[in-house]
Structure formats: structure tokens, C-alpha cells
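One chain shown below:
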Amino acid sequence: MEYVGEVGAVRYSREAGPVERGRGAGLGEHGRGAGLGEHGRGAGLGEHGRGAGPVKRSREDAPGDHAREAAPGDHAREAAPGEHAHEARLMEPAREDRPVDLVTALARARSPENPGPDTPAGPAVRAWPGPPSPIPEARAGELDLRALLRLSLAASDDSGRLRPAPSAGALHPVDAQLVVGTRCPLPPGRYGYDPLRHPVHRLGREPDGALPGATVELSVTPQRTASHYGHRAWPLLLLDTGHAAAALWLAARALGTYASVPRLDGLAEDPLAAVHFAPPQRVGRVSQPEEPSDVPAPRELLARRSAPPPLGGTPSRDVLRTLLTTAVQASADELAWCAAVGEPQPELVELAPDGTLRRLAAGEARPTLAVWAAGQAWIADAGAVLLAYGCPADADAARIRRTHLRAGFAVHLAHLTAVRNGLAARPVGSWQQADLGAALGAAPGRDWIVHGLALGTTHPDEEKTS
């Protein structure tokens, strides 16, 4: 069944307070009106004046993944001559002799172009050289690497799909190397981590100046994600890396001893991110992002799963305020945040300077978000959708990396906060033509949706039994 909703046109306002309804201004019309969307023609907020058709049903992701699905028939399309070679160049790991053109890759990922047919994903885990070694149990005064990795990166099933950090399509492209210093159960050195079987492979000696404790460096194997998402892979790779960094950081907090400082500055291509963990005796107050007010329990991190749709029921305004606060603090001023809310009064809300909620725009945005999010119709019925936006079209590679890493990090923390408040939640990572700023009447190309978190008060299993 296709979803074609009716959305009244609205007038946009950045001031707190009510937003007046208007007539005839579609949200996506880039300057011909500042409304939230005229969806009666099946395009709505994301119309951009051309080509966005009605929201279509699509194949579901497996539970625990970012939500993205291809529109019907997009995998059946034959690739044009040379297209796979061009895609492969964009998907290959960065190397000094062949760097990834991230600016071009992001522009293409944001376009309406559909991915081609699926290609082989390759091994679920990187083939590290050398024999595997178990991670020893930590002794008194040592960093508990085994517990830290099990609470953050380790798979809980034989296929490797179920892990504490979500991943688009459960493809898990993020690889981890450990730079181990003193006061760890492993001898100092550099190690590759196998999240499927949980051993490490010694790769060499530690670099000069390695800190006590351990640093986990995160890089990606692009082909795992590109195998299904094609040219849309690079934003998802960066978001997945941000989620993995957040999972590591939360694991340290859950263990109650170690201070971690995430590096998410976007300056390096490899590793994309790093998180350092100090040994127990030297834990102190270090510079780190704001976190949920209470410490998570290990069981909460292991139980985190992305809820399968549908996600019905609008969260309370108090809970939305808490989620927006968590996301804003965790994103370190790299992104703006709002939430598209459904019943009883559809609107976009954001945090005011005093910490309360204020209206960003009035009107129904969710059907258009469903169009923008690879045509996933269930998003039109979600209770609310938390949105990170920014990363302008002229952003350089470092800024692209930084904003996407921060978005993944922040959405992961918001996801945990949502679950702790009794909500069902599911990350939404793939967005096409999602120029939210232009849709709201601002200059085009400045405020693109980078990441989302769909929310509902009703869990799917409850809906089945009701």
C-alpha cells in the first residue's frame, strides 16, 4: 500500500510561538514559499519542485540496523558501462596514491540516483595478519580491555550482525585497531581486533609516545556497506563510525572506571576516529562531551537494538526536550537539531536558549521525510523523528567527516536515552535531496539532513498483541 498523505502548506518562522498557516507554499520549493509541505500531489516536503514521487513501501532492514531501503526496482536496474568502476573508486579505502573524493561522494549520495545491484560484501571481519590471541583477564590496576570491547564492538551472534553499535544494513564496516600502552592485560603494541571471535592479532610495536592504557582507532572497509548501498555508502560509513565511537565511550562509563576522550575532529582519513581509555588509577575529570545524567548499566548496552517499524505514538514534550538536549550537547556545536512531531499537532520543534521546546515550523513533515529517507513509508507514521542537519554543500572533506561522525555519536547517545525513557527508536541514516533549510525557505544547500532517529511510544511487539 502506498502512502499519499495530505499536508497543508504552512508559513515558516524561526521565532518562538505559533506559525501561521498559509496556502500554496510547498516545503521543498526552494524560495517560492516557506511552507512545510504541500503533499497532496504525493511529493510533499521533499519535492524540491521536481521528481519526488509518492512514498513507496520498501524492503525492511533487519532489526538492529540503520533504516534505509531502496525504492522498488532500484536493484533491478542495469549499471551503465563503467558505472561500477566509478563506484568502486569512490568506495575504496583512502590511500595516499588514491584518496577518496569525499565531497563528490557525498554530493552523489544526496542525489536521487538509485543504487545499482548488490555486489559481494566480502568477509564480515577484516583478515588481520598473524595468529589470533585471546585478550587476557585484567588484573588489579589494569584497563579491562576484554569487558570494554564486549560492551561496545563485539558481535553477539555467529553472523556478526548483532552488536551493541547499530550499522546500516547490519553490514558493520567499522574496523578497530588497539594501540596498547602500559597497565593493560596485553603487552604494549598495536593490535587488530576481531569482533566476531573476540581475539586480537598483534600487528607491531606501539608508536612512540603511546599513552598508558589503550587507544581504539576506528577505520572502515567501505565495500561492506557499498555492497548494498552503492554510491550512498560514504555518509553511512561515517555515521557508523560515530555510532561505534559512542558505543566505546558508553562502555567506559558503564564500567565505571575509565575516562575516554573521543577524537571526532574529521582531520584524518585513517583512522577516522579514535577513543582513548586511561588505566583505572589515573581516571579524572577529562574533557569529554556531555552525557546522559546517569551512568548506563552494562546490560543496557548489550540489549540496545533498533526497533523494527512501525513506531507509533508521539513522545511527550518532556522526553523530546531530553532527547534534543542530549543530541545538542553530544554534537559539540557541529550540527543543528529539531524533531518532526506527529499527533496531536504536527510541527517541527527545536530547543530554545532557555532549554524549553519552541516551534520551528508548523505542519506535517513526516511524509516528506519518508520520501527523503530512501522512500521508507513507515517513517510517515512514526511518532516523531529526531533530525540532525547542517553540513552545507560546499563543506570540505574534514567538515563532512566531522559532522557525520558527530551525528552518529549524538544519535547513539540519544537512542540510549530514548530507550531509557520507554520509547522504541530506530536510526535513519540514508537521506536523498533532504535540504531541510531550503524546504523551510532558507538559502538552498546549507542545511542538509545528516542523520535521524525515528521514535515511537508503541513497540511493534506490543502492537501485535493489542
Observations:
- The CA atoms of residues 384 and 394 lie 30 Å apart.
- The chain has a mean pLDDT of 81.
- DSSP finds eleven helices and 15 strands in the chain.
- The chain has two domains: 39-67+306-465, 132-296.
